[in-house]
Specification:
There is one protein chain. The chain is α/β, with parallel strands linked by helices and 484 residues long. It folds into two domains: 185 residues, MOFRL domain (glycerate kinase, domain 1), CATH 3.40.1480.10; 287 residues, Rossmann fold. It is 35% helix and 17% strand. It contains 16 helices and 16 strands. The strands form three sheets. It has a seven-stranded mixed sheet with strand order 6-5-4-7-8-10-9, sandwiched between helices. Strand 11, helix 12 and strand 12 form a beta-alpha-beta unit. Helix 7 packs across helix 9 and helix 12 crosses helix 13. It is globular, with a radius of gyration of 23 Å. The two termini are 13 Å apart.
Length: 484
């Protein structure tokens, strides 16, 4: 490997990192608000109404306004809403995120929920929210600001005798199962007192506006933070099938196993065996509109808690992809997008995307293949330091070794700035990664088997470290090729 080739690969690493960080930065919460809603006096105007709900909401009709913000983007979403809301009297609320903001509004209670596992504040935030919502009446308007990560950082068991320690063990087991996020969240919904529509049920008479920044496929929006304000279409029968499919029952804490084995295990609110009309079944993620405005006004009388509800998608992974595409085109790459491996096992996703990558670069030597979504990792042991993005990149590195001397780079990172149990967002690999790791005493196959990627990439200087971004729009994968 000549010095020129080393410089070329370093430049490609920098380019991939710039595309990733630039795409995340362009997904700005404040700009997204301004594209979707506008406050004028006491009126909230929906700027792109689709006929499914009121184009204007008159805040003066409500005596009280509650704001419940939860998830990794809770703080910037709350700050933006309050900055634009001209009415301040009667506004109170709760903010639960994985990091406490430096500046806090005295009208709100703030909680630092745990992620990827719940903590004491996760329980405290859920209890405080339920207590507040139970005070809501017909004269109350509730804004729910929901982003990814809320499933862990905001939780409370439906069975009050289940402890925090048992809940943590339950979440750990789900994360190690290899199940896709929508199936994990099906189990979480039926376990939790604040998921699967139960926040909406806590304030059945109030009007509700849910503003969403999803980290889930747009075809399964009710999986976002396990759907605290939306009616749930999953069933107890599905829960029991999932527990059996992933062999979870024998490994559950006894109290949780007994809970799921109850003959009277309740269905989630709003479940009548149909899918909510505002979460339609769709095909590829690319075909989904970037944002969808919805209302539950047409629901039956059995679902009154969801009747006066409006749902708005402020940002999604679609925005992340389009921002990355624009930056890659500006950098002179031919761009292709392939999101078809969403929710695949990381090794299968690596094989598929690399095969597609090599086929495309045979035609377009200067190529950027973009893929958004999440891969899964099934763990059969206690993991080391790593996450799904770093695991994916290690798998790619083993294949890239076959292409020595070629200018190829793979980056995979989480838009929230966090990958698994590490402070890295993800990692970068190229055809020299395996050899460089060996020189530092690391063996990729061993690190892969131990789910211990972070020490390796940290030693190589190939970790992607951004810190928490205040955002959570799923993971972004970039596969870059330059002319030799």
């Amino acid at each position: 490997m000549t010095p020129v080739s080393e410089i070329a690969l370093e430049t490609m690493h920098a380019t991939a990192t710039e595309i990733f960080t630039g795409a995340v930065a362009a997904c700005n919460i404040a700009s997204a608000f301004d594209r979707r809603i506008r406050f004028e006096g006491h009126r909230l105007h929906r700027l792109l109404p689709d006929g499914s709900g009121p184009a204007t909401i008159d805040l003066s009709c409500y005596k009280r306004i509650f704001v419940i913000a939860l998830g990794k983007a809770a703080s910037p979403m709350l700050d933006t809403l309050l900055e634009r809301m001209t009415r301040r009297n009667g506004v109170r609320g709760i903010c639960c995120s994985n990091q406490l903001p430096k500046n806090r509004n005295w009208r709100f209670r703030y909680f630092e929920g745990g992620h990827p596992l719940p903590n004491e504040d996760s329980f405290a935030a859920a209890r405080a929210t339920l207590a507040m919502l139970r005070k809501a009446r017909k004269d109350t308007l509730i804004f729910f600001l929901i982003s990814g990560g809320g499933s862990a950082m905001f939780d409370l068991p439906l069975a009050p005798h289940i402890t925090l320690e048992e809940t943590i063990a339950f979440h750990q087991l789900l994360l190690a199962s290899g199940a896709p996020i929508n199936e994990i969240n099906t189990l979480r919904k039926h376990f939790s007192a604040v998921k699967g529509g139960r926040l909406a049920m806590a304030a059945p008479e109030a009007a509700k506006v849910s503003l969403l920044v999803p980290d889930v496929p747009l075809r399964t929006l009710d999986a976002l933070s396990s759907g605290p304000t939306s009616p749930d279409h999953s069933t107890v029968a599905e829960v029991r099938e999932l527990l059996a499919r992933y062999d979870l029952n024998p490994r559950l804490p006894p109290s949780i196993r007994a809970f799921f084995e109850r003959e009277d295990l309740p269905e989630s609110p709003g479940n009548k065996g149909w899918r909510p009309p505002f979460f339609p079944r769709i095909g590829k993620a690319e075909a989904v509109p970037a944002r969808r405005v919805t209302s539950a006004a047409t629901m039956s009388g059995e679902n009154e808690a969801f009747r006066d509800s409006v749902f708005e998608i402020l940002l999604s992974s679609h925005d992340l992809v389009e921002n990355a595409r624009a930056l890659a085109v500006k950098a002179g790459f031919h761009v292709a997008v392939d999101n078809s491996c969403d929710d695949w096992d990381y090794a299968d996703a690596a094989r598929y995307l690399l095969e597609r990558f090599h086929a495309l670069r045979a035609v377009h030597p200067r190529l950027c293949l973009i893929s958004v979504g999440e891969v899964t990792v099934a763990m059969d042991r206690t993991p080391g330091a790593g996450g799904r993005n770093q695991q994916f990149v290690m798998a790619c590195a083993l294949e890239l070794e076959k292409h020595a001397g070629q200018r190829l780079t793979v980056l995979s990172a989480g838009s929230d700035g966090i990958d698994g149990n590490t402070k890295a967002a993800g990692a970068i690999a190229d055809p020299t990664t395996v050899a460089r790791a060996h020189a530092f005493g690391f063996h990729l196959k061993a690190s892969l088997a131990a789910f211990n990627a972070c020490p390796l990439f940290t030693a190589l200087g190939d970790s992607v470290v951004t810190g928490p971004t205040g955002q959570n729009l799923r993971d972004l994968r970039l596969l870059l090729a330059e002319k030799d």
